[in-house]
Amino acid sequence: MPAKQNTAEPVVRLRAAGLHFGDRVLWEGLDLDVAPGEFLAVLGPNGSGKTTLLKVLLGLQQLSSGTVEVCGHPATRGSRLIGTIPQQKAFPGNTPLRARDLVALGIDGHRWGPRLFRRRLNERVDALLELVGATGYAERPVGVLSGGEQQRLRAAQALSDDPRLLLCDEPLLSLDLHHQRAVSALIHRQACDRGSAVVFVTHEINPILQYVDRVLYLAGGRFHVGTPAEVMTSETLSELYGSPIEVFRSNGRIVVVGMPDTVEHHHGAEAASHDALAGS
Amino acid sequence: MDLNDLLGTIFSFENYAELLPLVTNSLIAGAILGLVGGLVGMFVMMRDMAFAVHGIAELSFAGAALALLLGANVVWGSVAGALAAALVLGLMGASAKDRNSITGVLMPFGLGLGILFLALYEGRSANKFGLLTGQIVAVDSVQLGLLAGCAVVVVIGLAVIWRPLTFASVDPAVAAARGVPAGRLSVVFMLLLGLSVALSIQVVGALLVLSLLVTPAAAALRVTSRPTLTVVLSVAFAVLSVVGGILLALAGRLPISPYVTTISFLIYLACRLIGWRRTVAASRARRPKPVAGPAPVR
Ligand SMILES: Nc1ncnc2c1ncn2[C@@H]1O[C@H](COP(=O)(O)OP(=O)(O)OP(=O)(O)O)[C@@H](O)[C@H]1O
Ligand SMILES: [Mg+2]
Prior knowledge:
Chain B: GO terms for molecular function: helicase activity. Chain B: It holds the Pfam family ABC-3. The complex is a heterodimer. By secondary structure, chain A is an alpha/beta fold. Helices cover 31% and strands 25% of the residues of chain A. Chain A has helices at residues 50-58, 99-108, 118-131, 147-159, 177-194, 228-231, 234-241, 269-279, and strands at residues 12-21, 24-34, 39-43, 65-70, 73-74, 82-85, 165-169, 197-201, 214-219, 222-226, 246-250, 253-257. The radius of gyration of chain A is 19 Å and the shape is globular. Chain B has a domain at 20-207: Orthogonal Bundle (ABC transporter involved in vitamin B12 uptake, BtuC). Chain B has helices spanning 3-10, 16-19, 24-46, 50-70, 74-92, 96-120, 125-133, 141-170, 172-177, 182-204, 210-213, 215-223, 227-249, 257-286. Chains A and B meet through helix 2 of A and helix 3, helix 8 and helix 9 of B. Magnesium ion binds next to helix 1 of chain A.
């Protein structure tokens, strides 16, 4: 278990936070503190407002009601305290950057004028590439890298500033099992060694189950916060979705059965066991 | 006209030594334009703005034609037209889709205005034609000063915004999270682009601006993705096209633009070929043995 300093000032503090677009309510009355070193998983069906929540923390989206603070200050754009892995979008083939240049932009891309001190920058880039296991393709153009390879560069970018708050939007998407483990362990290490608070949006809790301290589950304009053991239960999810849902545990994995058809929950490796159980 | 006449029209080197000093200004102007075109072209490619460049060029042409009609400075006229178009696009066309439709509306309007002004103009017809297809002898010292001044503004402006603009262009989500002011950067870039288009029109003409602002950068991107090398190549290709074009056009009776566009197109073809051969070689090296899989469709 990561050392949680619950007495310390929370990194994220949401109070009575609500967000709606027109009359479509994403969530309302959300009170949430995320402590330093805490690993919070955000789950929920497509369109439930997970990405929008991250945008709120980044200061890119205004709340409709309530307040949001990051490290004791109202969320503002361009905070140096936040690292972010965005929801995946591939780079076009003719992007004039190599892998290492992309990571370098994550470090100093917001600065004006020509680059000075290249040597120091290069050393940092090398260390970050090593950290995510991307040294082997450091010199290759980003446009020709696979989705998973690009995603590891995103992780390197996000960790570059030793952020107090690490926002990850489905960072494991399109990673193979080995790299899913490597990247989630990396993010976990950032939380427990460096004390960063992690907000980890995912559709798939099993690869990170061992690291997760609490879960924020968003669905149908409602939400539930608690430990995985509290939230990932038949009762809670049935209540959230308003239809009967069963949660099984086996071998330390969680299998959710009976999601409403309109909501896609499982994918990738998990889909098989889900379908097998759902079909019976 | 037989083949010899034709060749004589296209390539003629009579009196070359005497003609050369007359175009020193043009050569300097050409080199400056190549530098600007090669630099700006990088972002035109990264931001997918080739069509917008074309639209700005037509409005710049309209401005230049109006200046010609009124007897004002043609360079200022085209700068005014280009900046107006660039501002409209920068402020209204945030997404590529918006930008394309606005460009599609602006472009014929600009071209129509330009044709109107030219039709009303009663001076030398070479002046008229030059705005559309380029000219070399037109650059006098006053204009050269103006051109160089504008080019300095563009180069310094680009140097300042280069890094954040690259970031916002290739990786908008992370750039936004990092607080890069993408909207304001985009407007500033559009203004610099407008200036560059107006400058390029003085040599290659409104119809062929893309050969300076797109082709060299596109060629460079075919052969490398090292950021510094792409910029160096893009500038080198652009300078080579303009200066080479002027030198070839010097003694012939043709406008300069076919020479410039042909050189830049040939460079592009060569780069495509090199890029393609490299891809083939790389995929061979990476996959020594073909992996058994589903039979290929024949
Ligand atoms: N600026 C906006 N204006 C109007 N609606 C918006 C805006 N931003 C987001 N939405 C809507 O809010 C909802 C939540 O979007 P969001 O991207 O947060 O979903 P998500 O939970 O991340 O889904 P996914 O799992 O597909 O990534 C969507 O229905 C989206 O259409
Ligand atoms: Mg999302």
